[in-house]
Write a structure and sequence with these properties.
Elements (H helix, E strand, L loop, with lengths): L45 E8 L9 H8 L3 E8 L2 H14 L6 E5 H11 L17 H6 L10 E13 H6 L6 H7 L4 H13 L6 E3 L2 H10 L18 H15 L11 H9 L2 E7 L2 H9 L7 E5 L7 E8 L7 H11 L2 H11 L2 E2 L8 H4 L11 H9 L11 H17 L4 H16 L1
Parallel strand pairs: 1-2, 1-3, 5-6
Antiparallel strand pairs: 3-8, 4-6, 4-7, 4-8, 4-9
Helix pairs in contact: 8-9, 8-16, 9-16, 16-17
Length: 438
């Protein structure tokens, strides 16, 4: 599920540097305006409301101001809800009542299947205006309804990597070179745990190999095409091979005390990064900004990024932009979505806040292809994430993916923090899920 990444309040994101900076300044692709807009005043000026959550990066990249310069009669006002778990119920209420909706609304990947199955008729079909084949194929399919309409344009995706502290690895006698680290975990997440056991034998005092076993669990499940539902829409999470593997590995990590047992993004997790007591974090593309924000300048250059464990690519996170049919300016809203999700704009967002484009055209831009992160020892993230993105398997999504994932993650945290036995934690998780999804 897409979470609140770095939020507002002046928090800085991990800036992306590239070999060619000029390309990131080209923000003109994908825009169009025929002047035939629905006027809001006598002069033909309109305001479009963009409702989203967390950090889509448009403000940080200066895109909404740029759009106004390109379209002087259009002002885009972004209304952002910090927490997606607060945003989504409100969106459903607005869809049911038909009022209060944005002209453009963001939807998180963990919710898109439910919206596609139950609310698709309330959104404009973007396939009639946008070349949806520009996105990685599995992203387009996630937002495609049974009648073939495409209700969402892909914003970012979360190709997986592994963020690790080189200095802590060195003190624990582990390899520090990113290629050597990738080789050490090339057999998969089981190898990741073996590396963790080696780390803990010589771990610097007060440190743990990983921040959260639930994060590892999410990475394991995200690498599989079948996760919580089958292709018929039936919940199969109790028998899913990826769920079983992820759960068993999380239970092993908890029992061997390889994890700090921290719920990600909460205050204790942020404090652990500030104190430098975590050696590895499972890293979908957007996680780098979180780590650099909370680790701070003291640990710049001590972090690095390697390829994720195993040979199967994984995606964790990502969102969509949609256009409700009930809006007063549907045509203009579609043009805005088309522009925001074009390669150059997605590249600008990547540069500003580190979220990785879903538009394949962006991967060929120098500002993406040659991107490196100075904070992470100049890790070649453009190459790492693009390679991963192009080989991610198409996952079967379900209506309550987010509920299932969050509930299981909570129980993994209970195993780590409270010492809950795996059997009881699993029963508590399944009881809660069954009540929630019916």
């Amino acid at each position: 599920m897409r979470i609140t990444r770095t939020g507002g309040h002046g928090r800085r994101a991990a800036a992306v540097t590239t070999a060619v900076l000029a390309a990131s300044a080209v923000l003109l692709t994908g825009c169009s305006s025929d002047g035939d807009s629905n006027a809001s005043d006598s002069n033909g000026n309109i305001t479009l409301k963009l409702a989203d959550f967390g950090q889509f990066g448009y403000k940080e990249a200066g895109l909404l101001e740029q759009y106004h310069k390109l379209h002087p009669n259009i002002t885009v006002k972004e209304e952002t809800t910090a927490n997606e778990q607060d945003y989504y119920p409100k969106l459903l209420q607005q869809l049911n009542s038909g009022s209060g909706l944005g002209d453009v609304t963001g939807i998180e990947v963990g919710r898109i299947k439910e919206v596609v199955d139950t609310q698709a008729g309330k959104f404009a079909d973007l396939s009639k205006s946008i070349n949806v084949s520009d996105w990685v194929s599995w992203k387009e399919k996630q937002a495609t309804a049974q009648d073939g309409s495409v209700i969402g344009a892909g914003t970012d995706i979360g190709p997986m990597s592994l963020c690790y502290r080189k200095d802590l690895f060195q003190k624990a006698g582990l390899p520090t070179d990113r290629e050597a680290v990738a080789k050490a975990v090339s057999g998969g997440w089981e190898d990741y745990l073996k590396l963790g056991e080696q780390y803990q034998k010589k771990a610097p005092a007060g440190t743990k190999f990983m921040d959260s076993a639930s994060a590892m669990y999410n990475a394991v499940v995200s690498s599989s095409s079948q996760q919580y539902y089958d292709s018929s829409g039936k919940p199969v999470y109790k028998d899913s091979a990826s769920v079983k593997q992820g759960w068993n590995l999380a239970a092993e990590a908890a029992s061997k005390k390889l994890s700090a047992g921290l719920a990600q993004f909460q205050d204790p997790w942020q404090a652990a990064l500030r104190k430098g007591t975590v050696a590895t974090v499972v890293c979908p593309a957007w996680m780098a900004a979180q780590i650099s924000t909370y680790s701070g300048d003291a640990y710049k250059g001590k972090w690095d990024i390697s390829r994720a464990p195993g040979t199967t690519a994984a995606n964790w996170g990502g969102s969509f932009l949609t256009v409700p049919k009930s809006g007063k300016h549907v045509k203009e809203a579609i043009e805005l979505v088309k522009w925001l999700t074009a390669p150059e704009q997605q590249a600008a967002v990547f540069k500003a806040v580190g979220v990785f484009p879903s538009n394949k055209g962006a991967y060929q831009l120098a500002s993406v292809k040659n991107a490196k992160l100075p904070y992470f020892s100049d890790a070649p993230i453009g190459q790492i994430y693009a390679d991963e993105a192009n080989s991610i398997p198409e996952a079967v999504l379900g209506q309550k993916d987010g509920v299932i994932k969050d509930t299981i993650s909570t129980q993994i945290n209970n195993m780590e923090q409270r010492g809950t036995k795996p059997d009881k934690a699993w029963k508590d998780a399944t009881d809660t899920i069954d009540k929630a999804i019916g």
